[in-house]
Each structure stands twice: as C-alpha cells, then as structure tokens.
Amino acid sequence: xxxxxxxxxxxxxxxxxxxxxxxxxxxxxxxxxxxxxxxxxxxxxxxxxxxxxxxxxxxxxxxxxxxxxxxxxxx
Length: 75
Known about the structure:
This protein is mainly β. The chain has one domain (9-70): Beta-grasp domain (Ubiquitin-like (UB roll)). It has one helix at 27-33; strands spanning 9-13, 16-20, 24-26, 41-45, 48-50, 59-61, 65-70. The strands form two sheets. It has a five-stranded mixed β-sheet with strand order 2-1-7-4-5, with no helix packed on it. The radius of gyration is 14 Å and the shape is globular. The mean pLDDT is 91.
C-alpha cells in the first residue's frame, strides 16, 4: 500500500538512532513525543544550544544530532 505524502525522518537522539513519522519536528514536538517532562532541560541540536523560548520554533530535520539532558540540582 502506497502512502502519498508519508515521510519519515531519522535523527540521532542522545547518541541513539530514532525514527519519526514526520519530515521535521520542533523541539517542543520532540519533547512531547518522547515524554521528556523534566523542568530543567538542556537541549542541543547539532551542538547548538536551544533556549527554551525557542522550543516551539527550532526545527529538527532528518539527520540532525539532538542531545536532551536533564539537570538535577542538589546540595
């Protein structure tokens, strides 16, 4: 069965290959799909830091390398 317009993309997320049924994702969409719910996150796309006010506009494309790290504070 052929799906017209069906696209998938593969990214490297935290050093692991991940495939998504999309041609691109925003950082916010990625966080939602992967259920990253930590309040303090550091996100890099292709080694460039993404500020949290750009999560809804920063696009992740096929082949991108994404790091999502959660910060833990303590004393």
